[in-house]
Design brief:
The structure is a homodimer. The first copy, chain A, is an all-alpha fold. The first copy, chain A, has a single domain, classed as Chorismate mutase, AroQ class superfamily, eukaryotic (Chorismate Mutase, subunit A), CATH 1.10.590.10. Chain A is about 55% helix and about 0% strand. Chain A is globular and about 55 Å long. Chain A starts with 7 loop residues before the first helix and ends with a helix. The interface between A and B is large, with 53 and 53 residues. Chains A, B: Its EC number is 5.4.99.5. Chains A, B: Keywords: Amino-acid biosynthesis, Aromatic amino acid biosynthesis, Cytoplasm, Isomerase. Chains A, B: Pfam families: CM_2.
Chain lengths: ~250, ~250
């Protein structure tokens, strides 16, 4: 992101574009059934990864690989297993630093992992197994990374809101008043618009497209109400949690 | 895939579903500009990977990881760098074997790689760089794997067609007559339907979805005519190439 582009509009555009990514990822994950052995810590025994499920192993190893390629130099990206990641082997790119340095200490991926694996997955994938554990795990990484990026984008949302009206936020920040901050960050009408839009995206992107212009009414690859629920129960509340955590450190 | 499901209809359903995946992958890749350093063999120097571009390095390493998770046990999957892949560490899944064993010797991923990196990419991504080389490469893997799976699915298409009418194919197979086989496998009307459908999918999935029911006429995340061209110039011809190669070995 270039500095010139960091405005309330650019932040909003990014959030809207990320909705498409999240819906695509869920639709792709739904191609496979649950494949529960991939989440079972005793299903595989991989040297050096005892106690890891196949999905944990693949996510850890993928993050290691992507770290060498510089993924986590981008302040929009957050690892699920950030400890002991190797350094980037790629010449460093000059990402513009728009966030307060305290942003680096905020990573709620443990909560996102738990939400995704234990609560969200069973809501939108079929039961059963088809043996495609590697592809399932690759698809899980896409979902996890898309959700993580969207939720941690709360840092940018908070920063742009703070810059827009610092005096509105400073008293609550100094008082460490989380409830007051949460109130300042909550716009029910906006949240309802987002909810309706992601539900519609699930309908548009998850329909069966054919040339007869026959609408696949009621038959979607991922239930639109699940996408709506994902945003209402998890994505928007967790984004606001990130915003509050960021703002609490904004004057440090 | 269960044996019971291997019919002309199940094969067609899979091909249609894979169109959605391909369009989603292209739309996601188009979020990033070309990021040409990722394809430049002198941009990075990674120990043990001299002469590899960042994308080659990431694809090789991802395939190694996915091989340990059993990805290539599935006869629908083909590696881009199949030499010296490690064996799977996952209990083997009993994929039903519907293909002739000669299928294992067919892998045209070199052609697919060349087509994707050198011809397709510049048609649908913007010029320039944004530093997201790792994410770009991850997105390239998704595209490459989706295209590879779709094109090599020609093995299943050929098998189901052969089973349906072995006598139509046997003379051309015994005569090793590629042209005659290609003619038997070509249905211009079906190909035109596929072309129009993928173009429409690019419009539906690549539109800006909003709540006003305003159509984003003419503004798509990936130009639908590029998706149409991808199928006409590459996906369908390469699928038929796979079918011909498979049928030539079908009576061995």
């Amino acid at each position: 992101m270039k500095k010139a582009e960091f405005t309330l509009d650019s932040v909003r555009d990014s959030l809207i574009r990320q909705e498409d990514t999240i819906v695509f990822c869920l639709i792709e994950r739904a191609k496979y059934p649950l494949n529960s052995p991939a989440y079972n810590q005793s299903y595989v025994s991989i040297p050096g990864f005892s106690g890891s499920s196949l999905v944990e192993y693949i996510v850890k190893q993928t993050e290691t690989l992507q770290a060498t390629a510089g993924r986590y130099e981008n302040p929009e990206e957050h690892a699920f297993f950030p400890d002991n990641l190797p350094r980037s082997l790629v010449p460093s790119y000059n990402y513009s630093q728009v966030l307060h340095t305290a942003a680096n200490s905020i990573n709620i991926n443990k909560m996102i992992w738990d939400m995704y694996c234990n609560q969200l997955l069973p809501l939108f994938v079929a039961e059963g197994e088809d043996g495609n554990y590697a592809s399932t795990a690759a698809s899980d990484i896409d979902c996890l990374q898309a959700l993580s990026r969207r939720i941690h984008y709360g840092k940018f949302v908070a920063e742009v809101k703070f810059r827009d009206a610092p005096r509105d936020y400073e008293p609550a920040i100094r008082a460490k008043d989380k409830d007051a901050l949460m109130k300042l960050l909550t716009f029910e009408k906006v949240e309802e618009t987002v909810r309706r839009r992601v539900e519609k995206k699930a309908m548009v992107f998850g329909q069966e497209v054919n040339l007869d212009n026959v609408n696949s009414k009621g038959k979607y690859k991922v239930d639109p109400s699940v996408v709506s629920r994902l945003y209402v129960e998890w994505v928007m509340p967790l984004t606001k949690l990130v915003q509050v955590e960021y703002l609490l450190r904004r004057l440090d």
